[in-house]
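Researcher: I've been going back and forth with a colleague about how Hydrolase might be arranged in three dimensions. Neither of us has a model we trust, so I'd like an independent prediction. The organism is Streptomyces monashensis, in case that matters for your notes. Sequence below.
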Amino acid sequence: MDAQLPDVEAGKRFYGELFGWSFEDAYGSSVWARLDGRPVAALVPKTDGRMPTVWTVYFATPDADAFTRRILAAGGQVVTAPTPLDDLGTAALAADSEGAVFGLWQPGRHRGFGVRREPGSFVWAQLYTRDISAANTFYGTLFHDALFGAGAEPDFGRAEVTEVFPAEMPPHVLAHFRVTGLGDALGAVQRLGGRVQAPPFETSYGAVAVVTDNQGASFALLQR
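Model: Here is an independent structure prediction for Hydrolase. You can compare it with whatever you and your colleague have in mind.
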């Protein structure tokens, strides 16, 4: 996953204090975020101010070109064609049949998460959609058992937009980070210049609050 931000240095200060991340140079002006030395995310400078300030979750694929063809066949869109990032891997951006954007990552030297589900790391991705049936068909066609079972602990869910957000909110994928104390984490977000977008609510996978960072990128905090 990565965050596309206007100011990477400000992002480092925000997330470094919130989650205890450290940072090192990645590619170009991007940085890897690490938790106890293990990769958890990247912070990427926006190259176009018209692009949203946003967190993007990437799904792994062995063949990004072939996968984008499957996305088109399933009724989705390719936002950014597969692009190699040196020997790190190949990235692409796509959108589902309702317009929710997600990433694809064909691993090279960078395999992806070094840790997840631990405090301060990725734990869940929630698709907020207006048509859960269509979402199940779209993602089920693309990912089969990888998303919906096969004995593995799931980390991707679907919900209607209006369960948390106003009806006019566009469909989107919301990244969740695990925290040990939701109240303390919300206090830190606000102290660091972020804001609470949706106050804590209960879900089948834990207590969740939706926040934005000090530059406007939305994400969720999850206390399991």
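Researcher: What would you highlight for our discussion?
Model: I'd start with this: The chain has one domain: 2-223. After that, consider the following. The mean pLDDT is 93.
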